[in-house]
Amino acid sequence: MTTKKILSSIYENTKTVLKSMAGIKTSLDKIEPVSRETQSADYCILIGVTGIWSCVIIFSFDSKTGLALASRLTGKKEENFSEECVSALCEVANIIIGNALISMDGTGFHGNLTLPAFTKGGNISFFMPTAPMANLITLQIEVGVLKIFISSKNE
């Protein structure tokens, strides 16, 4: 499984899940390698994948984007990152990565997800200890910008 196929699977599943769960259209801005100096936005959801392909995946967004996305997911106006809001955001990230892993099943790719973790505060390190570079998928979604950082031992 190549990095390009993994990134493509994550993008395609993000697009599909956001459309089906929140009615949000997604367009790809860019996919690029990034260095350790690249910083996350104000809010992040971290998911790990263990197995043949070990990696850290971070969904990163600003407050406005996160609250607007959560509002679409919960069906009500979210004004702060309440437990329900955070739960909805973590669950959609979990579904996206879970679906991406399932779509790669049968290709020799196997992995297990860790539970998603939500964090507030920018400048989150999203690198595996042995990975000097990571990949960044920047998406334009109807409610803002969503960045997905993927740092892998098997880049």
Unreliable stretches (pLDDT < 50, length at least 5) are none
Q: In CATH's first tier, which class applies?
A: Alpha Beta
* Class computed from helices, strands and strand pairing: alpha+beta
Domains, number: 1
- What CATH calls the topology is Chemotaxis protein chec
CATH superfamily: CheC-like
Average pLDDT, rounded to a whole number, is: 87
Amino- and carboxy-terminal Cα gap: 11 Å
Number of helices: 3
- Outline type: globular
Q: Which oligomeric state applies?
A: single chain
Total number of strands: 7
Care to describe what's here?
The model has no long low-confidence stretch (mean pLDDT 87). The longest helix is centred in the middle third of the chain and has 21 residues, at 83-103. The radius of gyration is 14 Å and the shape is globular. Strand 2 (43-51) and strand 3 form a beta hairpin. Helix 1 (3-22) crosses helix 3 (83-103) and helix 2 packs across helix 3 (83-103). 38% of the residues are buried. The chain contains 3 helices and 7 strands, in the order H-E-E-E-H-H-E-E-E-E. Strands 1, 2, 3, 4, 5, 6 and 7 form a 7-stranded antiparallel β-sheet that branches. It has a single domain (3-152), classed as CheC-like (Chemotaxis protein chec), CATH 3.40.1550.10. It is α+β, with helices and mostly antiparallel strands.
